[in-house]
Amino acid sequence: MITLEHVTYHYDAENVALCDVSLTIERGELLAVVGHNGSGKSTLAKHLNALLLPDAGCVTVMGMDTRDEANTLGIRQKVGMVFQNPDNQLVTTVVEEDVAFGPENMGVPSAQIRERVDAALASVGMETFAKSAPHMLSGGQKQRIAIAGMLAMQPAVLVLDEATAMLDPKGRRDVLAIVQDLHRQGITVVMITQYMEEAVLCDRVALMDGGRLICVGTPREVFSRGEFVREHGLALPAAAQLRDKLAAGGMELPVCLTSEELADAICQYKSVV
Length: 273
What we know:
Blueprint: E1 2-12, E2 15-25, E3 30-34, H1 41-47, E4 56-61, E5 64-65, H2 72-78, E6 79-82, H3 95-105, H4 110-123, H5 139-151, E7 157-161, H6 169-184, E8 188-193, H7 196-199, E9 204-209, E10 212-217, H8 219-223, H9 226-231, H10 238-248, H11 259-272
Parallel strand pairs: 3-8, 3-9, 6-7, 7-8
Antiparallel strand pairs: 1-2, 1-4, 4-5, 9-10
Helix pairs in contact: 3-4, 3-5, 4-5, 5-6
């Protein structure tokens, strides 16, 4: 779907935000990009739909080079982006009008816009709020509307740039459930996140530090390297942290990424000893 080849990007002469980053995003996958603040993960996200263009290297989206201005509209129709603060993406005073804003600007016929808006709101569980004012909704509900606005444009790829960072735990769980459902429907999803529990749910994890892509692998491959992950400024998922503490106390357990895995491992350990 998307290929980055030796991408380098500078915000200014002394600030290298991305340095020689190469990454392939496969069709239909759920990819997490993790890293501490300033690691370059949000800069990478903005290259995926041509909001930023590389100073060196190449980004190709479904065969389209982002550096070619003739491809910009096509790329942004294929790659939808949801940002950290949903208020920055809501542009009207009625929910259904906000969701319709993108398709209208794409020149989609009115009858199709109606169908797309209804389907997008249903997919995020917000159909009963179609006539509501966005500013009256909770943060989680606003983020659902922002996602619906992207879905109404029928993108092939959805990029969430720390889209759960400003939400409370319930709002975060709700948005994650929507993301997982979209993934099951075949949409390619890229999640930029600082929450390792979110990364655990993904097919692959790309770890960034200092503008460089440090490693890419399955969640189990990446988070089994606890000391390596910590060296790059990140904490392990909570279950993995507890597993390490138990292991340090003499309880030999396999790598555990979720509370369910940890509970099963402890039960099996107890049954053996």
